[in-house]
Amino acid sequence: MALTYTPAPELGSPCPPFSLGTVDQKMSSLEDFSDSKVLVVMFICNHCPYVKAIEDRLLALAEEYEAKDVGFVAICSNDPSEYPEDEPAQLFHRWKEKGYPFPYLIDHTQEVAKSFGAVCTPDLFAYDQERKLRYRGRLDDSWRNEALVQHQELKMAIDAMLENEKVQDDQIPSMGCSIKWKENHSK
Questions:
Q1: Residue 1 has what pLDDT?
Q2: Domain with 72 in it
Q3: Is the pLDDT of residue 66 over 60?
Q4: Burial letters for 161-186: b for 16+ Cβ neighbours within 10 Å, e otherwise?
Q5: Is the pLDDT assigned to residue 58 strictly greater than 90?
Q6: Which distant-in-sequence residues (6+ apart) come within 8 Å of 186 by Cβ?
Q7: Distance separating alpha carbons of residues 7 and 93, to the nearest angstrom
Q8: How many Cβ atoms are within 10 Å of 151's Cβ, its own excluded?
Q9: What's the confidence (pLDDT) of residue 20?
Q10: What burial class does residue 88 get, using C-beta atoms within 10 Å of its C-beta: 0-12 exposed, 13-18 middle, 19+ buried?
């Protein structure tokens, strides 16, 4: 497991377009979220201990903001050849078992991850209504232990966007397992 940190965010950059199949055999695209005041794009997977540690908090956050016109979408871009937990059938099982309240997309070609500049799981992006990047960083200040959380940075960024306030520029990177790139990926 290679610990990777997200790079400094390019705040104000546009949300890259995407259109991918979902774990439940549907399609989902950026246009599906056109009515959302905020869009949170999460690069996650099944096998990563960093994702597993915050998964329930991500689900609770998505549920909390469901009625507030905040869209959430998860994307798995990992090459599952060496990580069977990230196979589409396993992603579907986890999505169903945990009751994910958002679509879970599969980036087989890894082109979407590349267009976002995603590097790890979890890699969390939050876009305003104009789909400009306002936040890229960690979920909160204690990935390992929810009881120790003092600052919920992603939640604070969402709240700021909903109130048309400035999101803090000083954003702390997310950390996690590197995306499992296919062999032909040039870094």
A1: 56
A2: 21-177
A3: yes
A4: bbeeeebeeebebbbbbebbbeeeee
A5: yes
A6: none
A7: 31
A8: 11
A9: 98
A10: middle
Residue 14 belongs to some domain of the structure:
no
Would residue 45 count as lying in a domain?
A: yes
59: CATH? 3.40.30.10
For residue 187, pLDDT beyond 70: no
**CA distance readout (Å), 34 to 2, 71, 131, 143, 151:** 35, 9, 9, 30, 29
178 in Cβ contact with 2 (< 8 Å): yes
Say which amino acid occupies 27: M
Report if residue 60 sits inside a domain.
yes
Residue 71 domain flag? yes
Residue 145 pLDDT > 60: yes
How many domains does the chain divide into?
1
